[in-house]
Design a protein that fits this description.
InterPro entries: GrpB/CoaE, NT_sf
Helix content: 40-55%
Number of strands: 4
Strand content: 15-25%
CATH class: Alpha Beta
Number of helices: 9
CATH superfamily: Beta Polymerase, domain 2
Strand order of the largest sheet: 1-2-4-3
Order of helices and strands: HHEEHHHEEHHHH
Shape: globular
CATH topology: Beta Polymerase, domain 2
Organism: Billgrantia bachuensis
Protein name: GrpB family protein
Oligomer: single chain
Structural class: alpha+beta
């Protein structure tokens, strides 16, 4: 499989849940170090978010990373350097985002990492960390979320955007506002 085929397979990869993998934190740490080595001045903080950051959580086997920057101007200056550092993205998708930039890494036709570049300590930054921390602290909520994700993955297997939108009410019930 060549690079173009691998990317297309990763883009079209269905939503699929797997059991928690104890290797996920190490995969995050490796990518965090890699990013901070390449962008030490631009990245103010790098956090593991999403379901792979919650011990025991069913998840898509994709490491979600949130990188904090000083401003969206800085985020935009990182666009091309990130593309040259193993990430890919859709310019059209990012054009519709006002509070973050989104990138993906892939290998062998599978997504491996999602990178969300956001303003450090912004509302979005605090909400994403609050959601992660709430699920880490409350096993009952984490079980409810895992159950919901399995159901949504089944009903939205080929539509990642619909899957993400369908989780919105649950996320808002935890953090108390819109995460978009």
């Amino acid at each position: 499989m060549n690079e173009a085929q691998s990317l297309q397979r990763a883009i079209d990869e269905p939503v699929h849940m797997v059991d928690y993998d104890s290797a996920w934190p190490a995969r995050f740490d490796t990518e965090r170090r890699r990013l901070l080595e390449r962008f030490p001045a631009e990245l103010l903080d790098v956090q593991h978010i999403g379901s792979t950051a919650i011990p025991g959580m069913t998840a898509k086997s994709i490491i979600d990373i949130m990188a904090g920057v000083a401003s969206m101007t800085v985020a935009d200056t990182l666009f091309e350097p990130l593309l040259g550092y193993g990430y890919v993205t859709s310019r059209e998708f990012n054009a519709g985002l006002t509070d973050r930039r989104w990138f993906m890494r892939h290998a062998h036709g599978r997504r491996t990492h999602h990178l969300h570049v956001v303003v450090h300590d912004s509302t979005l930054w605090r909400q994403r960390l609050a959601f992660r921390n709430a699920l880490r602290a409350d096993p009952t909520q984490a079980i409810r979320y895992a159950t919901l994700k399995r159901e949504l993955a089944s009903s939205h297997q080929t539509d990642r955007e619909a899957y993400t939108r369908a989780k919105g009410d649950f996320v808002r019930s935890i953090v108390g506002s819109d995460l978009r």
